[in-house]
Amino acid sequence: MWRFALIREQKDWHFDTEQAFKNCTGRKEDRQPSILSFVPKTAPLRAKQAITDKCVDFCCQDLRPFSVVTGEGFKRLAQELINVGSTFGRVPVDSVLPHYTTVSKACVEKAEAKRSLLIERVKKTLASGYDVAMSTYVWTDDYRKMSYIAITCHFTETDFNLVGKTLTTAVFPAEDAKTGKNIRRELVRLLVNTFGLEPSSLSRIVWVTDQGSNIVKALEPYKRLSCLDHVINTVLRHGLDKDALSANAPDIGETISAAKSVVRFIKQSGLAAQLSKTVLQMGETRFSTVYLTLKSVHEIYNELCEKLQSRGEEERMDNIAPDLLDFLITFLEPFYAAQRELEGDKYTTLNLVCLWNEKLKKHCQPSSTDNPQQAFVRQRHSELLDQKIKIHMLHKVALFLWPTFNKLKMMTPTEVSEVHAHVRTLVEEDDERGEATTTSDNEEEAHTSAVSHLQPNEKGAGGVDGPSSGWRCGWSFFFRLEVWMVLLLQAGGVDGPSSPGWRCGWSFFSRLEVWMVLLLQAGGVDGPSSSGWRCGWSFFFRLEVWMVLLLQAEDVDGPSSGWRCGWFFFFRLEVWMVLLLQAGECKGEDTVSQPAGDVLLTQGKTVKIECTFQTLGTPYLFWYKQDGQEAPKYMMQRSRIGSDWTETRKSQEFNKDRFEVEAEKNTVSLKIQDVDVTDSAVYYCALRPTVTGNTKTLNKNLWSKDNTILQ
């Protein structure tokens, strides 16, 4: 009997005769893989030998390196060809491989598609208020003498592996000199005009570059970090300079020059093939190769002496002192190790800068066993490290976020306090950014979704039904609390989940989560303007005070007085939580005030703009400047830890000596010295940084007593 399959298509019925034929003959398409398809298959030895012969022919005929057959790209191509043959059988290779022009065009299209995705990702990140890391460099082609500029974007994937993607490589205008001004103009042209980034978002890009004067000048208005790998190379270049060594360490300088000369002679004379190990030549620009050259000479020192003596060239080894060779290898080894680790492109290296800086400086301290020349080399490199390496707050924060070193033992107590204050500021800024993003997403969803949602003032069961502001309040609190718990666990030397202090921490978290659920379900914790929210912040401040007292306890590592102190604190915490949940109104709020009115000054004078504040929490005071109708610009910030004020942290634009913030008790004043015409603006004082007081307009008196214009 014939069986026909009916297919509905555009309201017409028709018979699928092909399917009917398959059903009739019983030849059904087998789409389910057999169990044998999961068993790994291997090619026979005869087939492997044939492939080896073809690989030899490929490398010889096309002049390709033998290592090309181990490349991941070659393997993927070969696997795809095997798959095509398995599916379609034996087909001519010309019918499968594309023309080289097709490959070229497809390469451009694929690159543009990937670049577009990368640019959109960068735009989205910058629009969200987060920073983006980029690096740039300019170089010249030695053959055609053409100059190029490249921009590379660095970020981490979801698996936290570091990824570097080249955003662009463009020809630098031949008619322009590679000055800082021209490089900056080219970078802005590429990022803004070509890729469509907002000009205002460029301030959120963190650049990592070498210390070339033109690059430093080009990125002066933006955030820039010096690549420590390049800095170390610069230190070695100056520290091992022949002219500098000839005056104070002539024997060491002669040892380096003699080793370089011997290696060059061995390469040119053909002796390299007769040696048991290869000797390595020094690079002209990478001074880490000095270590490799000296080490290769040291490993076959006796063999080199014998070979050169057999040819009557033994005097070439006379100026290589074995003891100085040992010293140089030992001294340069940490520099080489630092450069190798800092060159990693699959993991973050920002957190390594502080560690290697401290290790290298300690390594360069004079030793009692050093002779005068060796002591000079150490001292010279120590001075160069102090001059060249600049530690930025980003380096310190990166190290703090590394759990292994978050105690920051290599820093002074003042530096540790500054790092903690900066991290708190970043956490609060991230909270505000998250609130703004969530609010924006909710508004967009309300316009685009046809699904019914609760109104802003309506609550689900218990008043908390998802990632609302109250929910975010809880998570913000937990994040802040985690920082404190890290300090708490470290106070007693707790370093693993098996210790009592660690279990105490988790027990506390478990109990606290219950209270947080009750807190989130309570009414009046639905936004930063509500009394419940302010009451929450008041509670958080009290919690921080209790945490400080807890950390000052004798110990937190077992059922001792410190343990009892911890449980006593938890009991008090529960009392505060009960009071918080029962509080109908909590009137605590932050205030900031500035004297109203304008200030008129003669150019060159000094002005002080006062700002007073009241807050229950840790004060973070910010100053802003607004020119005309432009948006306010962030100037600087100071915070107070206990009764001590941290140092002023300034933005790049206002990082000058004439701008300063003077703080005492509840007054934070902006001081501007040597007032200039460009300082005419409205100045804002803000707290956390959302609460602003009265504005203060500063005008310059452009007329002197004899009514002449000051230029």
Automatic annotation (TrEMBL):
**Alphabetized SUPFAM superfamilies for the sequence:** Hermes dimerisation domain, Immunoglobulin, Ribonuclease H-like
Segments for region (Disordered): 427-465
Domain (Ig-like): give its ranges: 589-699
Q: Which Pfam families match?
A: DBD_Tnp_Hermes, V-set
Annotated Gene3D superfamilies: Immunoglobulins (2.60.40.10), Zinc finger, BED domain-containing (1.10.10.1070)
Q: Which GO terms describe its cellular component?
A: nucleus
Q: What Gene Ontology biological process does one annotation of this record name?
A: regulation of transcription by RNA polymerase II
Q: Which InterPro entries match?
A: Hermes_transposase_DNA-db, Ig-like_dom, Ig-like_dom_sf, Ig-like_fold, Ig_sub, Ig_V-set, RNaseH-like_sf, Vacuolar_transposase_reg
What protein is this chain from? Ig-like domain-containing protein
